[in-house]
């Protein structure tokens, strides 16, 4: 996968928990993983992760990352 086809964003919240969002521009699928969830991977749909409860700052970051990833 080329760099143009993939988008990656990282975030560290105020407690030092790290998050990584990856988005495949070819398939339109996004994934989130983080230190707070033992680096398990969760699918992101329309900028949301239904399986996780995220703080407001984490949600703001994820929504912004989703928007940046999905806009060409």
Map the helices and strands:
Blueprint: E1 6-12, E2 18-24, E3 29-34, E4 41-44, H1 56-70
Order of helices and strands: EEEEH
The Rg value, from CA coordinates, equals: 12 Å
* Spatial gap, N to C terminus: 17 Å
Quaternary structure state of the chains depicted: single chain
What is the strand content?
A: 25-35%
* Biggest β-sheet description: 4 strands, antiparallel
Structural class: alpha+beta
Helix content: 10-25%
For the largest sheet, list the strands in their spatial order. 1-2-3-4
Beta strands, count: 4
| Uncertain regions spanning at least 5 consecutive residues | none
Number of domains: 1
- How many DSSP helices? 1
Name the shape in a single word.
Answer: globular
Overall pLDDT score: 93
Folded structure, characterized:
The chain is of the alpha+beta class and 72 residues long. The chain has one domain (6-70). Helix content is 21%, strand content 33%. The protein contains 1 helix and 4 strands, in the order ββββα. The protein has one helix at residues 56-70; strands spanning 6-12, 18-24, 29-34, 41-44. The chain has a 4-stranded antiparallel beta sheet with strand order 1-2-3-4, covered by helices on one side. Strand 2 and strand 3 (29-34) form a beta hairpin. It is globular. The model has no long low-confidence stretch (mean pLDDT 93).
Structure characteristics:
single chain; 72 residues; alpha+beta; 4 strands; globular
Summarize the structure.
The protein has a 4-stranded antiparallel beta sheet, with helices on one face.
